[in-house]
């Protein structure tokens, strides 16, 4: 049992043998003091805007044993619906599996971790969750439980996406590309850049309209992202695209990459409204 003696600031550890020497009056004093401290802590936790949960690591399913009102407001689940459940109830199809794996590894290794993860509310709406997980140990180093603190950072994430992603194609934009390239060069990495544009794109816009031109850009961007999904790809603006690759081993590998990029256009691109075809 951990209590504080009168006038002491640090916890006092009292064993079962020591309790024999504690008077009934002192015992009830300690219990009352502990209850008051618990009530104070419980009140403070309930005022948090952030979601907070406590998880039992000694049960196989790692069930939630406590949640504050901030958590129920954030997730739309009631306390009754959450208690006894695993945090997986907040995951969905768009939740990144690699992020989940990192979190599970930290829990397995009993270490703290902070990650931003895409979660789902009860009604199915998504939100970006800055999740902070902290293991809590007793004075002997035994793991007692995990505390999880959730903060909705959706607005900040959306603002970042607006700053670093092209609004038309959802591809990384020029700013994102320039910062990524700068980081690689600062790390003395040697890279290969493939820069290309669409011939006579202005003529396409003038002939078929900007809506059809936008559809063409979206389709090309989609094909390039699928083809070069392992590498950094960006739309610089207008009809200009760029692919950031590692340094080519030789001229043959460079030509392979160029032909790979040209293969995007090996299939005809259809302008849906005008029913025209482009090579």
UniProtKB/TrEMBL annotation:
GO terms for molecular function: kinase activity. Residues 111-165 form the PAC domain. Residues 189-279 form the GGDEF domain. Residues 37-86 form the PAS domain. Keywords: Kinase, Transferase. InterPro entries: DGC-Regulatory_Protein, GGDEF_dom, Nucleotide_cyclase, PAC, PAS, PAS-assoc_C, PAS-like_dom_sf, Rev_trsase/Diguanyl_cyclase. Pfam families: GGDEF, PAS_9. It comes from the Bacteria. PANTHER family: DIGUANYLATE CYCLASE DGCT-RELATED, SLL0267 PROTEIN. This is Sensor histidine kinase.
């Amino acid at each position: 049992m951990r209590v504080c003696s009168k006038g002491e600031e640090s916890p006092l550890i009292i064993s079962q043998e020591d309790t024999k020497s504690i008077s009934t009056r002192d015992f009830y004093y300690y219990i009352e003091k502990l209850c008051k401290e618990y009530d104070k802590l419980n009140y403070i936790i309930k005022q948090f805007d952030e979601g907070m949960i406590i998880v039992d690591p000694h049960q196989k399913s790692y069930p939630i044993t406590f949640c504050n009102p901030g958590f129920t407001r954030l997730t739309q689940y009631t306390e009754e619906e959450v208690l006894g459940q695993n945090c997986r109830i907040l995951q969905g199809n768009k939740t990144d599996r690699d992020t989940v794996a990192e979190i599970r590894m930290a829990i397995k290794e009993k270490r703290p971790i902070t990650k931003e993860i895409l979660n789902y509310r009860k009604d199915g709406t998504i939100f970006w969750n800055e999740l902070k997980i902290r293991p809590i140990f007793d004075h002997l180093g035994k793991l007692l439980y995990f505390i999880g603190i959730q903060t909705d950072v959706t607005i900040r994430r959306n603002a970042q996406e607006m700053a670093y992603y092209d609004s038309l194609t959802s591809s990384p934009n020029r700013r994102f590309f320039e910062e990524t390239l700068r980081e690689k060069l600062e790390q003395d990495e040697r890279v290969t850049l493939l820069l290309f544009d669409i011939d006579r794109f202005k003529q396409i816009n003038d002939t078929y309209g900007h809506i059809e031109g936008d559809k063409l850009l979206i389709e090309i961007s989609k094909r390039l992202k699928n083809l070069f999904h392992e590498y950094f790809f960006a739309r610089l603006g207008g009809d200009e695209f760029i692919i950031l690759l590692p340094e080519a081993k030789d001229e043959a590998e460079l030509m392979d990459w160029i032909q790979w990029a040209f293969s995007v256009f090996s299939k005809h691109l259809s302008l849906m409204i005008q029913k025209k075809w482009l090579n």
